[in-house]
Amino acid sequence: MKTIQFKSSNPKESAFTEELRRNVSEYFRVNNLSNKGNFWLYLKSFIIIGIYLVPWVLMITYPMSGWIGLALCIIMGIGEAGVGMSVMHDAAHGALSRKKWVNSLFQSSMYILGSNIFNWKIQHNLYHHTYTNIFGYDPDIGTKVVIRLSEHAKLRKYHRYQYIYSFFLYGLMTLSKIILDIVQLNEFNKKGITKRQQANPKSELTILIVSKTLYFIIFLGIPLWISPFNWWQILIGFGIMHMTAGIIMSTIFQMAHVVEGAEQPLPDSNRIVHHEWLVHQLLSTADFAPNNRILGWYVGGLNYQIEHHLFPNICHIHYRKLAPIVQTTALKYGIKYNVKPTLVQAFISHVKRLKELGNLNSIKPKKIAH
User: Fold this and answer.
1) 33-46 pLDDT per residue, tens
2) Is residue 261 part of a domain?
3) Is 107 exposed, middle or buried (0-12, 13-18, 19+ CB in 10 A)?
């Protein structure tokens, strides 16, 4: 994949970039704050991990009815999503701590979710964050089997129903990652992406195979061996846990980029996007439910997705304070700041966008410049 450049001939965009970075740096300087996490973030991390692991311990050690087991599987799914959004995510961006080993430790929580941190960092940190909402570059808006997430993707007749069936398929996200991680890593290895990231392809493949083997032993093998449940109950519970986590994480991520007002530009024939990179992030991203502190706590500040995309190396605990700074600076330069006031409004906006993208009369796909 050839890279693209972000360039703007508008001097206001360059001035906005400089002032925004200056304003955010000033905030941390004046308040004598580190832009990383603190004690309360570490405490939250252990609470979230507990929500995921404690139900598993209970299910393999205490006799209980199938209905209680089912409820615990749903709680595990909620915890699984929380670990991905509130623990692993900051650490993988190097935002949880100033100490590299601490970030490495907490980002390894990805392995207890059954996925692979190396793959995730390439897909998310490298491609999604660099080329946000650019079709053909950002894998997060690539067509997902039968879900059309970009106005530039090929339109099929069945897409008219995607606003109905997409949420079931969202539930398959974490399960598909468990299975398809090895395919994705092989692709990265063949294209030389792994080596360009200063990683050893054989070592990464070994880590992937060993970590997934241990995951299946712990979360399927041990319950099948010592829990009081039947094998089919365990498999159903495993599936329900992942469906819960997949629906939560997919919906949260999509409400930040596949909503009304979030742009999906294409580079020109010279592979140039005619905006400064920070401006592009603003135009292609949306915040939602900024006043919902419980939601923000659980999703690791991903409801402040604009702030996260502008400053991915800053811990999410600071986003609530940074959001007014970003919004004020953006409005000063006439740059759109897309925010959905509530979770419900963001969800409805995503459904409307899915429906629009599935409309046979929607914008015809354009040829992308590679």
Assistant:
1) 999 999 999 999 99
2) yes
3) buried
Domain assignment present for residue 162? The answer is: yes
As for how many domains the chain has, the answer is 1
pLDDT tens digit sequence for 117-167: 999 999 999 999 999 999 999 999 988 889 999 999 999 999 999 999 999
In a domain, 298, yes or no: yes
Residues 178, 245: contact at Cβ < 8 Å? no
pTM: 0.92
SS3 category, 95: coil
Note down the domain range covering 245.
5-357
Nearest CA among 231, 247, 265 for reference residue 363: 265
pLDDT surpassing 70 at residue 370: no
DSSP label of 258: S
Q: Cα separations (Å) of 210 from 104, 150, 179, 216, 362? A: 18, 36, 14, 10, 46
Q: Contact 265/366 with Cβ under 8 angstroms?
A: no
Residue 362 belongs to some domain of the structure: no
148: left (phi over 0), alpha (psi -120 to 50) or beta: beta
